[in-house]
Design goal:
Blueprint: H1 2-21, E1 42-51, E2 54-55, H2 58-61, E3 65-68, E4 72-76, E5 82-91, E6 98-103, E7 112-119, E8 122-128, E9 144-154, E10 157-158
Antiparallel strand pairs: 1-2, 1-3, 1-9, 3-4, 4-5, 5-6, 6-7, 7-8, 8-9, 9-10
């Protein structure tokens, strides 16, 4: 019986030796849990906007895109010119979730705050301008802006192909 176990023991020792010889500086990491992914990430087209309680004329938002990554948000106009770029964090403990936005290069004291409402494929974001009142609902007052965005791409897949 020991003779039959010997080849298995040698094989197991070889596997363990190979595993311990594997480089430790690049360990295999599991995918993050689904609840740790950012639901806002993706590329959106700007559907409409509102500033200071008034609608933004459609021609001003036509062709504008917003790209959201895990920690940045950037908007470009129909000519591809960036009109807004900020780092952000989300406090999902609030309902609706609250975002803290800080334009790239701006001081922490210049941060503004937003409310976000994601109802696939649409995302509404209302935020205050520096010194403006904090948003409390999804309509604007003087010193606030709001945009309605429609998701075009999430995780590299066009929204129309998502199931």
């Amino acid at each position: 019986m020991i003779r039959h176990l010997l080849p298995a023991a040698v094989l197991a020792a070889g596997v363990l030796a190979a595993a311990s010889a594997a480089p430790q500086d690049n360990p295999v990491r599991p995918d993050p849990p689904a609840e740790k992914t950012n639901p806002y990430e993706g590329t959106y087209v700007v559907v409409s906007g509102e500033e200071d309680g008034k609608p933004i004329p459609p021609e001003r938002v036509e062709g504008a895109l917003v790209k959201i990554t895990k920690d940045t948000i950037a908007g470009t106009d129909k000519n591809g010119q960036e009109f807004f770029a900020a780092n952000y964090t989300v406090d999902a403990t609030d309902t609706p979730p609250r975002m803290k936005l800080r334009q790239k290069g701006a001081k922490e004291s210049a941060a503004v705050f937003a409310l976000a409402e994601l109802k696939e494929p649409n995302l509404k974001i209302v935020y205050n301008l520096p010194g403006g009142p904090l948003p409390k609902e999804f309509k604007t007052v003087k010193g606030q802006h709001m945009y309605v965005l429609k998701r075009q791409v999430k995780d590299g897949v066009p929204a129309a192909e998502k199931k």
